[in-house]
Protein 1
Amino acid sequence: MRRKLAIVLAAGMTAGLLAGCGSGESAGTKDTAEAASSQKGTQAQTESGEKVNIEFWHCMGSSNGELIQEIVDSFNASQDEVVVKAVHQGSYTDAGTKMQAALAAGEAPVLAQMEIGMLGIFADADQLVDLQKFVDAEGYDIGDFMPGLLDASYYNDALVALPHSRSVPVLYYNKDRFKEAGLDENKPPVTWDELKEDSGKLTVEGTYGYSCPLDQWYYMSLVMNAGGTIFNEQANGIGFDGESGTKPLYLWKEMIEDGTMHVPSGQDYNSSEACRNAFAGGTAAMVMQSSAQLKGLEKTCEFQVGVGAIPKDTTLSYPAGGSNLLMFKGHTEEEEAAGWEFLKFMTDTENALKWANGTGYLPTRQSCMESDTFKKMIEEDPNLQIIVDQVQYSTYKTPFIPQYQEAKEIFANEIQKCILEDNYTPEQAVESMKDRVAKLF
């Protein structure tokens, strides 16, 4: 490990010198000597035996948080040069807010797990380290990451993240309730019409056939399944101005009105938790949730859990969700090098498989899919294969623009207003989203 850190640090210094020359600036003898002296000093400091301490902020609670800590502990025990301290910062939203405050105060951690939509905010503000310098320095095989997941790690051609906790929205259903209702337990609804029909058969004695958080991610899943996109091709306005935006809202309003859809209380992550509780408690027979909830639901529910694709209107298309691992600027080269070693460990094939198997997040590497370990995981839990199969429908590349987070808040606000207020129509909601998002640009 000590030698690896020294090599990475030396490569970083060399890359900096080459970049200076390439920009047209002259690297004179004095500058070169000073750089060499600085490089030598940094290596000597790394080899002095002192441990490099860095912080890693994450957003995983409960059993997922315990698994994060387990992987961090494994890294710390695997070598004696770097100590990583994992710090839980709450939800994605909480962590994003805290990170902005930490950056303003000059107290950001070296590494953090951040929701993919926040990448544009930090990258646009030039707060993220371009990891390509480490990749180039040691010939690291970045191509082993799943292409669709790796795409969401770049900003203006700079590699500013590595894929980690990536997910897709899926439909979970209660197989026992399906059998009781005379439905095929291995055939969840495929279309919106089938969703409505099955929900009607599953709604009995104070229970509901279906539940879904009034959340922008699940709404956007239905928007894309109706032929829309989150943003237009120019990335300066919404991409669902029309029926692709109104039809999902009409679907929900109709199902709520006929008593087949349960509306979970709360907002954002609280609403998702309420939805999962309704499913586990038998209040709802089907729910739209993240694939990352697979293992938690299988452990919690006292019935057999089935998994299916999100029912479609005209096509199958999803916005991939989850988070990436980022390195923030403002730290020493030694700390950056230490952070890179941990990033590699956290995302290697072994730990990517451990993370996927313990949570339900997607395996991020192609080598994961080819491994005997993954094949065994699929044999033990076929639901995981169904989730992995959905990746092919998550091809939409969300533009990483600074306005994305504000746009998501607008979407969520308008969705809830439309569903909860009888006199606010889907057309009014979509028109308002269009106008309010346009003003962000």
Protein 2
Amino acid sequence: MKVAIICFDFKESNLRKQPWRYVYEIAKGLKSNGHEVFIVTNSNNETDIAGIRVFGVGKLFIPLKGESKEVLEVLDRENPDRIIMLLGLTSFLRTHFEIKQPVIGVLTSPVYSLGELIRNVGIRDSIAYRRYTVIHIINSLVPSFLVRKWSQKFEYIIVLSQRNRERLIKKGVPADKVIVIPPGIDEEFLELPERETIERIRSEISPDGAPVVMYYTSPLTLRGTDTLVRALPHILKEKEVKLLILSRPDYRSVLKEEQKLRKLAEKLNVRKNLVIISKHLPLEDVKAYVSSADVVVLPFKLVLSDVPLSILEAMALGKVVIGTDVDGIPEILKDKGLIVRPNNPKELANAVLLVLEDKKLKYELETAAKEYVNQWRRWNDVVEEFLKLIG
């Protein structure tokens, strides 16, 4: 069977990040099971990424119309049997649907209400970070009747969390059409680093032996990194800690975010307790840093793509994760981590102190997290579910 996948911004540098990791694993898995797979994305050239053919077109989608002429031309020329299309709610802001083949939609973007966005992010940050927030604001305003109407054109719509499924159904998508297929976990994260490596990193970060509170991946404040820094003075009133932010500098603008966090720490007089490591690290090094932490805090205000892999990775390494009541995060962390309200430094500080001071609770949550992820689906399980759908 020949399968086309339509996905925005598909490029090699994005393959370890969501939602592209999800798309890549599906494409790779379908190909390894004997299907011919190609990807259509918004770039200017035809290429090959990790052994998968990629056709670049100028635009994928014309707002208020539908798929671009270039996309339709590629589909007509290549004539796939099935199409998998990455969706956002703006995909339903259309007047035409000209694709002839059966289509499975994959909605990786969380379904937020406008009230949630304003409450979690705030108006000022929504404007300041409009590069990230504007699409979610538009999504929140898409009329339900359009979602209901155009969802009929899809065989199925895949979502990554139960919360997203419920919200799509509430917008009028038939329940039997919406299927939850969460992302997989890498086997590598189930293997703990060497104890000597972990101890060496701990001694570098916290020479005096203070507990290490850790955040990792992009330092974007939409992910709640500023909330975590604001929580630090509250934590330090009760307990000496080191806050480690392992930053992934994907873009030049990330360096500005790091500087913003340093200035905030200076303003709050906690700069000596903040350690920011800013560099791209191999997987083994990331695992070692995460393993060196006493607690991992991922206090998202906004999840840009459903079900953050960083939460599953930290749990796989046996870490207590403190997350926020955003998108599908509570589904993962219920009884296996702690949940706080987003953008609430005092509540976040109390959760950190609870984990650090209650050794019994910490052990129970670490054990539950590790056991839970040991049973979590692998990427080949995700592929198997797609294979069943495409027949």
Protein 3
Amino acid sequence: MLVSSAVSVLEQLLEQFKPCFSKPQFRNYSTYILGLVACEGKKNIDAINRSFLDAKNQSSLNRFLTSSPWSLQRLEAKRLALVREKLPVPEGSTGFLLIDDTINRKTGKHMEEAGYHFDSAEGKAVWGHDVVTTHYVNGDVEYPVRLGLYVKKETCQKKGQAFKTKIQLAIEQINEFTPPGGTRTVLGFDSWFFCHQITEAARARGWDWVTQAESNRIVHYKGQKMNVTQLAESLAEKRFKTVKIKGEAYVLCGLKAWMPKAGNVKLVVSKEQDGFHFYVSNRVDWPSRRLLEAYKVRHTIEDFYRDAKQNLGLEEYQLRKGRGAITHWHLVFNAYTLLTLLRHSVSKASSRLGRRLATLGEVCRWVKRQCFRRLVDWIYQKFRHQAKPETIYRML
């Protein structure tokens, strides 16, 4: 779809970022953000550039991503400040900082910092970039926070760069995060990130944490050392209770135990269709239902990865330079945050329309429809000024 200009309400949000750029840089920034949202098909530089009526040479966009002297840190700080201002959360509420990583699969073997990474969904190593990110959730407010690229040790050694594990990248983001004032924070992560360094980082911030444990995790219960599967199999059937969470039934047994490198924990054993699942938190006072509800918030970051890949081209970049890929991810974070703000803004203005824009995909489609209306208006104005069809065809 050809784009003539940004939707007015999106223009207002884009204007907030003008101080981060020079005039030419802001033009490229606005073009790229709107292209990520409205461009059909692949969302690489060439496709985005060709989507605009007044398209310039794509080399300008390429330089903007790979070498233009503007600050990613300043852009990130402005984005987080804007979302805090526009989407305040209640004082005394509980927010969740979620940690996870995602692999952006690539085919080009000459992309900087790319490597083979194990993909649990595929059950094998795949070629691409592995990105560790954090995501904040508080009620119906949610947005991506920070990201860090995981580069394999051998690649770092070849380039003379300092190597950081995914755990170290996650801890950096934990330490850099500032929760909204007057709120409590729970750190949520899956079993891969369940280690002493992560739980200690949460403790140092005064936060609670919730996670899932692997089936072979060691636990001490009533003086006995065993793995959590052995413990689950030893529990009497009458200890399990059925609870409903968002309409779904779970059969749970909660107990207090001690785990090496985690300390005293609340362990919730869940009987599910594919066997036992194990949920863990430092909050030994939480009921089983509350602990599982807290862990289920973690699906938000997985939904973000899916939406960002399907609707905003998170892994569709075709850039050899590592900086270009990192810039692309930051701009996808930016586009997602702006669409989140747009959805809340539209919901306030029209509750009926707001109900129709419940997902990121629906917001993207709404923006595309507004862009199409602007294109029709543009063509109409050309005809009003006696432009010939052949002239308009050439401009399109």
Protein 4
Amino acid sequence: MAGRDLPDDTLWPEDELIPLSKQAQFAARHVLTSRPGVALHINAFNFPCWGMLEKLAPTWLAGMPAIIKPATATAQLTQAMVRLIVDSGLVPEGALQLVCGGVGDMFAHLDYKDAVTFTGSAQTGQRLRAHPRLLEKSIAFTMEADSLNCCVLAEDVTPEMPEFALFIKEVCREMTAKAGQKCTAIRRIIVPAAQVAAVRQALLQRLAGVTVGDPQLEQVRMGALVSHEQA
């Protein structure tokens, strides 16, 4: 789509002139242009590949080079993918850079031309958002942090109904997909008191059939946690 719809120029009028006065003496027009700085992407541990790629696409469309800072726990996987991208020769030299471990004084070298994105815990994100350099230089900062998601069983749903089976299926899936290590996972379920015992029994029965182990094996349905910190 970008190749078909976006111009080769660095200026792209987004719309037509918008009159700002009755006599049309003043008008405005939105113009998109590339930023002259870099985009620093600090990413979460649970999406070491896809989480990076979803940020690279708009970064490169905006004409900016990207610096990827993956979470330490899964940095090795991110490094392997970055190496594949760089070795492919599909992106210009310097368009993709990788920093593993701490960022050192990297923030001190950023200014208003740059952008910072963060995906991870709300606590860390709030600390980064308040970084003196970001505030002093008005550096664009975007944060994607924790979410609190729940699944609610309605009061009129009983165990023999298909809605009950769907509830159990979805809760079990959220508990086992990525071993529960995703920001959109259900963190709590809300069940009418009269159905607590039935829900508990149904969940135990379904979870008993989940095989835990090496996710490369066909019969395995849940892998290990990414680190001891996630236990």
